[in-house]
Design goal:
By secondary structure, the protein is an alpha/beta fold. 47% of the residues lie in helices and 15% in strands. The protein has helices at 29-45, 76-85, 101-107, 135-143, 145-154, 160-166, 178-191, 194-205, 208-226, 230-241; strands at residues 5-9, 14-19, 50-55, 90-94, 97-99, 111-114, 119-121, 157-159, 171-172. Helix 2 (76-85) runs antiparallel to helix 9, helix 4 packs across helix 5 (145-154) and helix 4 crosses helix 9.
């Protein structure tokens, strides 16, 4: 691994995969590739039975750092698909914000543990861009199609309690218990037969990686159409200046 992604053993059969670009943990293809590499390394090792995905810093992941360009122009989404293709159950420990593509990273896991201080937002439309990272598939799976549509249209920020109410996170715990609760959930899974868990996971999630592959191909094409628009540049500027966007539809 590297300075940005590390593997740590939490219990005999539970490992932490921690990524570190604090305070906001913006991602790119290289970071997602390293996370996927860590998943595959743990799966090959045979000892790990469940993974806790976590990050260092104030926010779990504030998405991709656009810098006014398309971050999916390289193999970002190819690497994202690898997160869904892994063989081990994953629990995301979501501190602070999981925003935009960062929400997509959190949704790549089987479960999400959050606190009242956590916040989730599919803020793509507020940036003037189409959503990505397979959110087309994952968000409706956890909150339902109608709620997903509302979140995508409005870019609303959802706090921990409300996220738990709508199923966006699976466990809600005090902030200082966040990572430990994720480890305990992973340990509950690890106690079960690893052969049975893997078989169940293949049944329940076996087609997910391919569905995400198809979705990200469409998402990438739609994003490419919008990255050159005035609305996208206005959305990024407004976010950087912490003001409401003034979209023109151009």
């Amino acid at each position: 691994m590297s300075d940005e992604v590390s593997i740590k053993q939490a219990t005999e059969h539970v490992s932490l995969v921690e990524f570190s670009r604090p305070p906001n943990n913006f991602f790119d293809a290289a970071l997602v590739r390293e996370i996927a590499d860590a998943y595959e390394e743990l799966d090959r090792g045979g000892k790990c039975r469940a993974i806790v995905l976590c990050s260092e810093g104030k926010n779990f992941c504030a998405g991709a750092n656009f810098h006014g360009t398309n971050p999916a122009g390289d193999d970002l989404y190819e690497q994202a698909v690898r997160l869904f293709a892994g063989g081990l159950p994953v629990i995301s420990a979501v501190q602070g914000a999981a925003v935009g593509g960062g929400l997509g990273v959190a949704l790549s896991a089987d479960f999400r543990v959050a606190s009242p201080d956590s916040r989730f937002s599919a803020n793509f439309a507020r940036l003037g861009i189409h959503h990505g990272f397979g959110v087309t598939v994952t968000l409706p799976l956890v909150v339902g199609p109608q709620r997903a549509l509302e979140l995508l249209y409005t870019g609303a920020r959802v706090r921990g309690e409300d996220a738990h109410d709508i199923g966006l996170c699976d466990r809600l715990v005090p902030t200082d218990r966040l990572r430990q609760e994720a480890i305990e959930l992973a340990q509950d899974i690890a106690i079960s037969s690893p052969l049975a868990v893997k078989a169940i996971r293949r049944t329940m999630r076996g087609e997910l990686a391919e569905r995400v592959r198809e979705a990200t191909a469409h998402e990438d094409a739609e994003q490419a159409k919008l990255f050159g628009t005035q609305d996208f540049h206005e959305g990024v500027s407004a976010a950087a200046e912490r003001r409401p966007p003034r979209f023109s539809g151009r």
